[in-house]
Automatic annotation (TrEMBL):
<dbReference type="InterPro" id="IPR037045">
    <property type="entry name" value="S8pro/Inhibitor_I9_sf"/>
</dbReference>
<feature type="domain" description="Subtilisin-like protease fibronectin type-III">
    <location>
        <begin position="650"/>
        <end position="746"/>
    </location>
</feature>
<dbReference type="Pfam" id="PF17766">
    <property type="entry name" value="fn3_6"/>
</dbReference>
<dbReference type="InterPro" id="IPR023828">
    <property type="entry name" value="Peptidase_S8_Ser-AS"/>
</dbReference>
<feature type="domain" description="PA">
    <location>
        <begin position="376"/>
        <end position="449"/>
    </location>
</feature>
<dbReference type="GO" id="GO:0004252">
    <property type="term" value="F:serine-type endopeptidase activity"/>
</dbReference>
<dbReference type="InterPro" id="IPR003137">
    <property type="entry name" value="PA_domain"/>
</dbReference>
<keyword id="KW-0378">Hydrolase</keyword>
<feature type="domain" description="Peptidase S8/S53">
    <location>
        <begin position="126"/>
        <end position="579"/>
    </location>
</feature>
<dbReference type="GO" id="GO:0006508">
    <property type="term" value="P:proteolysis"/>
</dbReference>
<feature type="active site" description="Charge relay system">
    <location>
        <position position="207"/>
    </location>
</feature>
<keyword id="KW-0325">Glycoprotein</keyword>
<dbReference type="InterPro" id="IPR046450">
    <property type="entry name" value="PA_dom_sf"/>
</dbReference>
<keyword id="KW-0645">Protease</keyword>
<dbReference type="InterPro" id="IPR041469">
    <property type="entry name" value="Subtilisin-like_FN3"/>
</dbReference>
<dbReference type="InterPro" id="IPR034197">
    <property type="entry name" value="Peptidases_S8_3"/>
</dbReference>
<dbReference type="InterPro" id="IPR010259">
    <property type="entry name" value="S8pro/Inhibitor_I9"/>
</dbReference>
Amino acid sequence: MASLFFPFLLLCLSLTSSVLSNQIYIVYMNPAHRPSVHPTAADWYTAELQSLSIDPSNRLLYSYKSAAHGFAVRLDQEHVSLLQDHRSVLQIVPDPVLSLHTTRTPSFLGLLPTSVPLQTVETASSDVIIGVLDTGVWPESPSFAAGNSLPPVPKRWRGACEAGVDFPPSLCNRKLIGARSFSRGFHAAGGTRPAGEYSSARDQDGHGTHTASTAAGLSVGNASLLGYATGTARGMATGARVAVYKVCWSSGCLGSDILAGIDAAVSDGVDVLSLSLGGGAAPYFRDTIAVGTFGAAEHGVFVSCSAGNSGPGASSVANSAPWITTVGAGTLDRDFPAYASLGSGEHLTGVSLYSGPSMGSKMVPIIYGSNKNNASKLCLAGTLDPVQVKGKIVLCDRGVNARVEKGAVVKAAGGAGMILANTAASGEELVADSHLLPAVAVGRKSGDVIRNYVIKNKNAKGVISFGGTVLGIRPSPVVAAFSSRGPNMVVPQILKPDLIGPGVNILAGWSGAAGPTGLVKDDRRTLFNIVSGTSMSCPHISGVAALLKAAHPDWSPAAIKSALMTTSYTSDNTNSPLLDAAGGQIANAYAYGSGYVDPQKALSPGLVYDLTTNDYIAFLCSLGYNSQHIQVITRRNEVSCANKLSDPGNLNYPSFSVVFGKKRVVKYTREVTNVGPAGSVYGVKVSGPDFVGVTVKPTKLVFKRAGQKAKYSVTFISKNKANVTNDAFGWISWVNSQQTVRSPVAYSWKISRTLD
């Protein structure tokens, strides 16, 4: 799996356009049609397949019951036609292939052990179970070495620690309480495991161990990646339990396996689901993740998914369903500086996690491209001439192949070091890697300086040096350039991502079967690794959600999401607006949603925007989906759209996305619930562009008791629509002396439509 993950390190699981095989399908069934003679849905599915001369013993992969009504099956084309005409079949979709999106964090987020409220919550979180769908787990990691430090496993837990290759059930404990693997879809699609990949929940890749330990790993002292980021590594919710569902394999992650993992996790009794994987811009009834997580949310499970790593392009965000908490990525105040010193006297700063012997102080020749084609400038495999490269620093353009692979190519050709230079596509975004040779990554501006120097000087020379770990970086945080952006292509009236969290250079547990680069030739082994991506920010939010669930066990998933969103912040540690690493400009809500997560404030948000399953059904009805499409998502025998929303933006969401299009006036209604003290009074505060009028009624909300609800309406008026070409942003906040409950507002004048 390592060879798959690292070329897509900045991609966290994004839907690809192809499938491994068009013979595997997910079939959604109408539960109202199940005859009483069949005691279970699985019995019914088997009988229906047999009636069509489809042998379930050879072709049926999964029967779903908790997260979806249906099954995964291997079909010939004539079978597809038979099922499409079956009166009980709601929808048949090809099994999609997905691929991985890919210490300091707790203190940066304010999760300090000296905080009395958080100490109490950490203790209570031992009753919260986080399910992680990923590449499995390395159970021997010290992040999961609970022993008897935690109370007994909650009695309501219904999961299992499945026996498999190099994974006896005895490896589970009071921290790692469950481990399952799902590969039927992968195998049926023709996927083959390479040598070293385990036919069990054991993680050969490292990605799953990293995400699971980020969410809820135990505190481990003196942790580091080969000396970098030394300190105490710990997850967000150290007391929470972890259940792992391995759904990703060397050739990708099949939708049928992922849906089976969600189904099992819900049945097992998890409270939080963490999926560092995602789909593309597809209607929700065609999105396997959206369908499965709707069922999870209805069972009271909080679902956190990565936004994707396709930024900074607009409308690149994944996992846009409103019942999912969609997480983008930002930086920490920690960096790993490295330097490229040139013969011209220039001293340029970049980043690196190289930990081997240094180059010393003597400058060596720099080469940029060992032949006339551009492939050598990208340092692609087989493009460097060892005669020209030996003993020199090679300047490599970023892009096409993995960053660490470029270093391996340079080393194999005999290079002494590598300068990895960003192009316009990556801008100034820097991601540190544990290269196999002395290497430094620099931004586009520095890269242009070096390129210009090398091109104009036949005797160009330089040397690379390293600065270790540096804390207190300013400004921090910054939105990661790779983090996927809004607006939401599926439903433009729902603002996505919801918020951002730490996702750049994150230290967490790692697999004992993979080196830090994930390359086959990397024989180094480390208990912890530093990785970047929205894959990393997602489990941060999952862990924080577990803390909120422990503090407020009666809160719904929507209430927890609301608390996280309305208390997030948008100012960095210089008290300036958050910046976007893509271009250094001020970021906006399409990049960070509601802002950067603040766990301390989220514990006491004052007001929450709550949602029920019926609210989501009314929302789905407003999208123009037919009854069968809505049944696929909601698993209902019948669906009534009598209470459908007048506009998708009228969903009681903690943020606003106002799409004027041809309209000049848009009106939305919201309802908030008081989760603060009785007698709370809030006044409204509005900010935004002067060419949009905003009227909120009433302007004051009075709550006589805790749990009381209050509604308000907002009317947005575009004053000069014809002259507006760009999107704009603002805020609606409910404020008193103790609380600020803040919602971002995005304005668009584009003509938009939901995907169908």
